[in-house]
Model the fold of this input.
Amino acid sequence: MRLLVCDTSNSNCSAGIFEDGKEICYELSFETLTHSETFMPLVHRVMEKAKIKHEDLDGYAVTVGPGSFTGIRIGLAAVKGMALASGKKCIAVSSTEALARSCENATMTPKNETLIVPVIDARNNRVFAQAAEDDTLRSLLAEDAYDADAFVAKIEKIPEIIYGARRQIIVVGSGANVMKKAFEKAKSGLNIYYAPGAAIMPKGVALAAFASGKLIDARDLKASYCAVSQAERLKKNG
Done:
């Protein structure tokens, strides 16, 4: 299966062509311009590099959130447009799963003894996050919007942590520093590594997409915000 994989859910955006899990080419952008300005030109460049047309694809994979509300909307609108125009289907990918799959465990502790915690900074001591087994990516705490302190308390109660089956935690993503403060405040004493510079890579989106393999109609693509936007909160409180 040949996919165009896309991510606009956070500060960077990316696109890549992958076939049966193997990378053909990709591009990652950290430009300060908005995704509405950078994303489609980036897609065109990737397609040209791969010498592939949209009709040559089997489908599209795109991160549906959580993350930047505006970024998610831009990515979904663009991918829906491409998919509907080419008559192809789509795969919805969780941003936190794509983030976890973008990272490699470079420590001495094996994956089957490690908990991976992908976290995206949601501001005001909040994170979009989940906690999963590093080897299987089985979720032990579901993807959601969490208060960082409350999330630490939940992690400490995971049976695999309590009984030592998962004796190491790796926290990855833009919310890593927020989580570090929360863990230090809790004085948990857990063995934790932090990777605040970790970002969603096209490889991570592709691995999540091929692991899912669930192709859906572009019209059925829905954002997974895990929280209401500031505008919606203000409207509700007004």
Observations:
- The helical segments are 35-50, 69-86, 95-101, 148-156, 159-162, 176-186, 202-212, 230-237.
